[in-house]
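Methods — Computational structure assignment.
A single polypeptide chain was analysed. Its primary sequence is given first, followed by the predicted tertiary structure written as structure tokens.
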Amino acid sequence: MTAGRRPGAARPPRRPPVTRRLTRRLTLRARMALLTALAVALAVAVCAAAGWYLTRNQLYHELDRRLGASAGAPPGPEGPGSPEGPGGPGRGVQRMLGRQIEAALLDCRAEASTGTGDGRGFGPYEIVQVINAQGRPCTVPDAGSLKITAADAAVARGGGDRALHDGTGVNASGRTEDVRVLTFPAHTDDGTPIAVSVALSLDEVEGPLDNLALLLVAVTALGVLVSAAAGLMIARASLRPVDELTGVVEHIARTEDLATPIPAEGTDEIARLSRSFNAMTSALAASRERQQQLIADAGHELRTPLTSLRTNIDLLLRAEATGRDLPAAARHNLLVSVKAQMQELSSLVGDLLELARPDEAEPVLQTVALHEVVDRAVQRARLRGPGLTVRADTRPWYVRGDPASLERAVVNLLDNAVKFSPPAGTVTVALAGGELTVRDHGPGIPAADLPHVFERFWRSPSARSLPGSGLGLSIVARVVGEMGGTVALEPAAGGGALARVRLPGTGAPRD
């Protein structure tokens, strides 16, 4: 356990990496330009490094070829400096330096010696050196000296064909320098094996490579700067539609004007985002319009019962204040009217709460016996229409839904049938195979009114004098739609209206 931390204590939030914190502070335009510059820098650096290594290999190959060709052994399958060639190994050097080699072997010394030469070396070589059979270096006068390696000594002892490597040596002028060394086998006139090392200065390679490296670095830096500038311009041009979109969205947020269109041109991602914003603002505008219409309709529907309530209560209070009691029949009628208006208000508020429930707040679904719900609703309908005949024929049917909402929807259907039925009329209710039908023998519904019967607060002209808020059928449509069913209202044969509700389910309860 970490010292100083109590058991169960919350761990401190982990801070994001430094690079992420830095990039978060940059604008999207700056990040795009930075990424473009980094990508170009990486590509240019890879190309520059590859070019430098290819050039280096080519220069070294040319240097090795010169060493092998000058030694009288042209490059063979094994590479430059192969000892096999016309005249035997190293014959070209031996013909050119025969006396100097013999003198070096007679007076074998490792230090550079000065002879009668002019200090410019022999032929194309910077340094020439002989290695005797014992592996000791023997310098040639006016030809410098080399630091031999184990590979060079092995060639002198007959243990190798050649040795090609980088090394250091002192040239005829006494200057120490880096060289490319080729050691190949040879022999004296009496057949004694020896080795001859020839060397060329690496300045011929390193100098051009250094200059090339500087040039490539400069080109890379210039490419990065140019790519950063180009990336910034490209990012600015690419993000111009985003800036325009941001401006329009900020205007909408500031003014709450959802009717402002957002330009959407082309088929790219920005145009798609703009069209999505337009669809969103259109949906919000439609939602706001429905909300305002709901508030206006609710206020209109609430005004009538509230006005009637206030009038009746004012009459009761005035009679109480003046001391003149109302007749018992009139007082009873007023109280009955107040009760009816209170019930109408309660029903209207309940309907409004049901419709105001958001769609995402889905009720808890469970298995519901629809035939039992219909039977209970039929009993309530008989109480509300005492002079009517309500016939019911229900078969078992089980659905998945919210019991309270489902019962409210069925009661609304039956209330609608009771309200429009004539005195001593008949209401027929049937449930079979998942289809619920409710038929009345009232005035029916005109064809022009059928598209509007499930709208909120809509009432036909013939029903405006009847009690109700116009919310009952809209609640039915919502509940049935949430359960995956359908509802329709149509004229019935012989007069009246027929409501059909189809709900998915089974004839037996599910476990």
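Note: The chain has a mean pLDDT of 78.
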